[in-house]
């Protein structure tokens, strides 16, 4: 593999990043920007953990139908994401900029979206339930896209200096991880209380709408008013929604590898999360009252026995990933723990009822060490990849690229979550008769389906992500040169390059673009 260093003949001062005053992001702004990702990290976590089980075990929809409802709604989400990217790119009517008006509007609507999605419609007829859930999920995903596509574009637009961006996106990542931890654990605990009959569903509903909803909404709205867009853009130029142009960013080689890293990592998490409740109920033994003895306390088996240890070890994994990133590269940090992620999933799939249940959180903890780097690096890589795209196209297709990322992840999640529902339905999954009814015994076919989905999905997806990270070849030294060439080309054009610079410029484009 060609790993030629294109900076070796460049004067040292040219290959270092120098931050211009206008690109500096104050610490307070970084914190506000990062806090806005409580919604991105939190809602993805709790929706992936409970939505499919909510459809099947609370609302009472057939598993295969529930998977289809999620898939249809996600396809809608995938369709509107590109449009939202173009709308954001073309916004000129607000003094707040191109991204922030939609963060404010979308953020304010989040509680309303949750109110529709988790409405207590248990008394509806079967057809009415399905119709309601399709439209409710479409409303929710539309609100999510309204705020999230512009917010994700800010990961590149918040500064033109990659070190400042990395710093700001580190705050974003920190809040994302904290939100993921809280909103994996809290819904899992609440879910156990609801399904065990200790909490009325309406209490659960109001906690989601007014508790989760406000925690998600307020930081986005505040960020919409207080953070700054620093990336320049042409006031007179507007983009049109052209499908061919929208997917043009897929011709950037580095972006393609980055996209595969991102989609495989997050789709793996989506599928593991969707399976967690079913796994602990019917393989872990929650349905039969299994209790996990931790030595210092005893806890009833539930999805928290997978989620909590994963989050704890993931926090450690992220710290390790940052050490690896500093010493090697972001992509090395991404892939370092993936083998542990795979091993942990296979061990969970192999777990048998006569094994000590303490092994379930142990295996989940092994997964978490790999989970940390896989979840933390892709959005740090994104801003770098936008610089590479500018090197190829001569402009920064930030919202377009973030739109394609959400489009691809949404399609993948639609297929992945739908697949879980379809497989469980085909395996003859038996839905509980009501929210507080005892969990039914499941046929062996359902248990086998859960095991196979867990082991095969994690192994296949993360292997693809691992290979993609090897093929992604952007590093900090090359980013310094990319920024240099992007700036100089904007000022004097390619004809202003010296022969040595033109040679280096062409090599970078060939290698990365």
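Sequence proposed for the structure above (513 residues):
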């Amino acid at each position: 593999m060609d790993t030629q260093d294109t900076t070796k003949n460049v004067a040292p001062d040219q290959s270092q990043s120098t931050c211009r005053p206008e690109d500096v992001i104050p610490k307070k702004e970084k914190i506000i920007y990062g806090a806005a990702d409580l919604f991105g990290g939190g809602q993805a976590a709790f929706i992936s953990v409970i939505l499919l089980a909510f459809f099947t075990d609370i609302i009472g929809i057939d598993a295969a139908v529930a998977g289809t409802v999620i898939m249809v709604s996600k396809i809608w989400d995938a369709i509107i994401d590109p449009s939202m990217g173009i709308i954001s790119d073309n916004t000129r009517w607000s003094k707040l900029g191109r991204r922030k008006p939609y963060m404010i509007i979308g953020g304010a609507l989040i509680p309303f979206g949750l109110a529709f999605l988790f409405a207590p419609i248990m008394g509806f007829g079967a057809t009415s339930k399905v119709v309601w859930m399709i439209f409710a999920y479409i409303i929710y995903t539309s609100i999510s896209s309204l705020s999230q596509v512009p917010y994700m574009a800010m990961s590149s637009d918040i500064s033109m200096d990659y070190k400042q961006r990395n710093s700001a996106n580190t705050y974003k990542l920190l809040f994302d991880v904290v939100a993921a931890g809280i909103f994996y654990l809290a819904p899992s605990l609440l879910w156990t209380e609801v399904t065990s009959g200790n909490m009325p569903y309406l209490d659960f509903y109001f906690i989601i709408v007014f508790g989760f909803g406000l925690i998600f909404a307020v930081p986005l709205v505040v960020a919409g008013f207080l953070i700054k867009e620093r990336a320049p853009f042409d006031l007179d130029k507007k983009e049109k929604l052209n499908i061919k142009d929208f997917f043009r960013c897929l011709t950037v080689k580095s972006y393609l590898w980055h996209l595969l890293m991102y989609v495989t990592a997050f789709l793996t998490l989506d599928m593991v999360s969707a399976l967690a409740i079913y796994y602990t109920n019917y393989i872990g033994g929650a349905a039969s009252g299994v209790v996990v003895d931790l030595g210092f306390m005893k806890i009833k088996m539930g999805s928290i026995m997978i989620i909590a240890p994963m989050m704890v070890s993931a926090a450690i994994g992220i710290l390790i990933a940052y050490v690896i990133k500093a010493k090697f590269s972001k992509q090395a940090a991404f892939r370092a723990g993936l083998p542990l992620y795979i091993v942990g999933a296979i061990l969970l799939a192999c777990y048998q009822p006569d094994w000590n249940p303490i092994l379930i959180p142990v295996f989940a903890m092994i997964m978490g060490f790999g989970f940390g780097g896989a979840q933390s690096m892709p959005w740090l890589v994104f801003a770098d990849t936008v610089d590479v795209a500018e090197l190829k196209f001569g402009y920064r297709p930030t919202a377009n690229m973030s739109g394609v990322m959400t489009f691809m992840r949404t399609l993948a999640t639609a297929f992945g979550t739908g697949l879980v529902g379809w497989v469980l339905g085909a395996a003859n999954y038996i839905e509980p008769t009501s929210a507080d009814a005892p969990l039914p015994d499941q046929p062996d076919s359902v248990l086998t389906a859960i095991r196979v989905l867990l082991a095969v999905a994690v192994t296949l997806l993360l292997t693809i992500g691992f290979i993609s990270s090897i093929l992604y070849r952007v590093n900090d030294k090359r980013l310094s040169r990319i920024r240099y060439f992007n700036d100089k080309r904007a000022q004097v054009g390619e004809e202003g390059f010296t022969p040595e610079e033109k040679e280096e410029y062409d090599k970078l484009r060939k290698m990365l673009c």
